[in-house]
Amino acid sequence: METTETLTEYASSRGIRLTAEPGLVKGVKILGLESANGRSYLKEAVARATALYEGAKVNVNHPARGKELEPRSYQDRIGVLQNIRLGEADAGLFGDLRYNPKHPLAEQLAWDAEHSPESVGLSHNVQARTSRAKGGRVIVEEIVRVQSVDLVTDPATTRGLFEAETTEQEEESFDMKELTLEQLKTDRPDLYEAIEKAAVASSEDASEVQKLTAQVAEQAAQVKTLGDKTKTLGEEVDRYKAAEALAAEQAEKEAAVTKVLDEAKLPEALVTDIFRQQLMDAKDDEARTALIEDRKTLAPVKRPQSKEQHTAGNENATTVTDGKTLAEAITRT
After folding, report:
1. β-bridge mates for residue 59, sequence order
2. Residue 232: which H helix or E strand, with range?
3. Distance of CA 111 to CAs 16, 78, 119, 151, 200, Å?
4. Does the reported pTM lie above 0.85?
5. 6 — phi, psi (to 5°)?
6. What residues contact 195, with CB distance under 8 A and at least 6 apart?
7. What is the biggest distance separating any 2 CA atoms in the chain, rounded to whole angstroms?
8. SS3 breakdown of the chain: % helix, strand, coil, rounded to 5?
9. What pLDDT, in 10s, does the model give residues 293-306?
10. Residues 57, 260: Cα–Cα separation, whole Å
């Protein structure tokens, strides 16, 4: 079964070399593929984790047990790792240690690096996904987070899940398949309290998320309603503009018709509502002028004659005295 564990691992410092540049030690070994604690690191997992170690903080000594994930104090910090690379074959992970030459332990580190490299080494503090092979050996399949890489001493004591402080038996206890909440509360009250706080925080967060979700849903509904109202208002504005444009066009046509009629001076009887509408529907003034010219042909021709001639020659003729009589005369013809 795959699990996630916090691991620390000691790597021998043999092979490091002090440089002429103050504060730089080249070739430090950060991690080997086989651990004295019964762990095997997959080479591909170490290769994938190379970027996680670039710029990793280096502290003096490991944190106290149970505080592996807590922030380290400022005075613990001595340097950083750079130029991380995978060694040849199964040699493991290597890099350069750039440390503060003004740190209180800088002189001791430089002396050990040059004269007694076996007295000091690097031990990483990481979170990793692990599984167990037959025989109980732990297989590290993925390094997911590098907390720090710490300077440690006395490699003979670096055994267990927390190097230099636990044993293999203690490491096995981290499997905790049958661990009960009461046992955890008794044996690790600090861890129990942390889990309890995390559970409360998670519950509060879930409640807050629900509230926020409800607020977002309500706001979304309000936005939709506002959008619908805006759309309706926009449609009304469009209709109003269309009506306004149509009215303006109608007024323009009426003005044009009135103008051409005034200029044509047609008898009032010839300007019927139907004829006026025909003028309104005409596409331009030229078409309106053509209609008016055609309309003029309906007007009677007035010939100069005396009153006696008019009545003597046509006793049955109708005297045109007004527009109505003229219209009736046009209709009869």
Report:
1. 77, 150
2. helix 189-264
3. 12, 15, 10, 14, 50
4. no
5. -95, 120
6. 184
7. 156
8. 50, 20, 30
9. 888 887 765 655 55
10. 95
